[in-house]
Amino acid sequence: MKIFVISTLAVILFTGCATTASFDHLQSYHDVNPHSILVVPVVNKSVDVKASTSVLTTLPKSLGEKGYYVFPVNTVKSLLEFEGFYDPQEVHNQSAQSLAQLFGADSILYVTIHSWAARYIVVSTTTEVDLEYVITDPAGNVIFSDREQLRYTPQSNSSGNAFADLIAMALTAAIERAAPNYLPLTRQANANVFLNGHAPLPPGPYHPTYEEYYISTAAQ
To answer: How far is CA 170 from CA 62, 123, 160, 184, in A?
Structure first.
């Protein structure tokens, strides 16, 4: 379990915790060595109906930067709906083999939103996301998994006047409550899992460190 704290005076405060796999736990991933990733629709367990779409749109960039071919998520969603799969949970319940064969993918990414909410307490609002990531091979074996919980509490500048500062805090909290800014948290969660974690996703075949990485794993 790791705690990430990133703060700026007038921008945002991130607090998150993540559980990442050790290098040894990536052996199954190394054995499969996927070149493409099929991102299926996101299961949303929060009350925000827009959450799944927001998360889905952030994934291709992170995975592409890691060197993988990512099937276009909107095309995937449309083809699945053409096949009669409109509910993301129903898609997640399908066999990985059938999904992989449908698209010709060699790995599948399933993402579940456990929390996507803004919590208001007195004069502060904390926006939080809790995302779970699971990658399987075409046979349905889990080869990579992680979970990210991130929180953001906007901070206001101190003027030295207690009453004015209280008003400013209340105003900042009200603005965040009215329009929670989830996307920076989501992008940070993706970065923690795929790019910056203790044992992040191994580089894909289109990443400049791909060959070097797999040479080093063979030497382990």
So the answer is: 35, 5, 16, 22
pLDDT digits (tens, 9 = 90+) for 2-32: 333 333 323 333 333 333 334 467 899 999 9
CA distances from 72 to 75, 77, 87, 128, 156 (A): 5, 9, 18, 27, 39
Supply the CATH number for residue 149's domain: 3.40.50.10610
Dist. CA 216–CA 220, nearest whole Å: 7
pTM of the entire structure?
0.77
- Cβ–Cβ < 8 Å for 147, 92: no
Q: How large is the average pLDDT for residues 131-150? A: 95
CA distance 77 to 166: 46
C-alpha gyration radius of the chain: 20
Q: Which of 32-41, 57-66, 96-105, 189-198 has the lowest mean pLDDT?
A: 189-198
Q: How close are the terminal C-alpha atoms of the chain, in Å?
A: 25
Nearest by Cα to 186 from 36, 12, 10, 9: 12
Structural domain that includes position 94: 2-202
Number of domains observed in the structure of the chain: 1
Highest mean pLDDT among 120-124, 134-138, 190-194: 134-138
Give backbone dihedrals phi and psi of 186, rounded to 5 degrees, phi first: -65, -45
**Domain-embedded: residue 218:** no
